[in-house]
Amino acid sequence: MIGVLVASHSEEAASGIAKIAKEMSGQGNVPVVGVGGNESGGLGLSVPKVYRALMALLERCDGVLIVPDIGSSVLASRAAVDMLTPEVMDKVAIANAPILEGAMLAAIESFIGSDLAAVLDAAKEAKNLDKSER
Q: Topology of domain 2-62+70-95+102-115, per CATH?
């Protein structure tokens, strides 16, 4: 199964988004983890926090999709992936997707047994959700 790592500037936002994605994807069977905030508990995201969460997911998953919010969360996610060995690096992708919708669609795709490429595609498809239609 593919794990989903929600990476945000805010620990509360990351935890909340991870909870929604987990509960919307088969009663919590998909490994979805939120990581956020800096080492002192403020806004931001440190590379070590992302790396630790990523390694924990890789221990129990076939691969991991990281869904970051913006700015330094993207940079911290990229830096954490760069710390991996090439063999492990191939099991990780970073989604250019809206964080909530992307994490939720990725978790649903993981629940049905899809591989990392399909889970990534599902997350990216979240950019096309039209919330304005009645």
A: Rossmann fold (3.40.50)
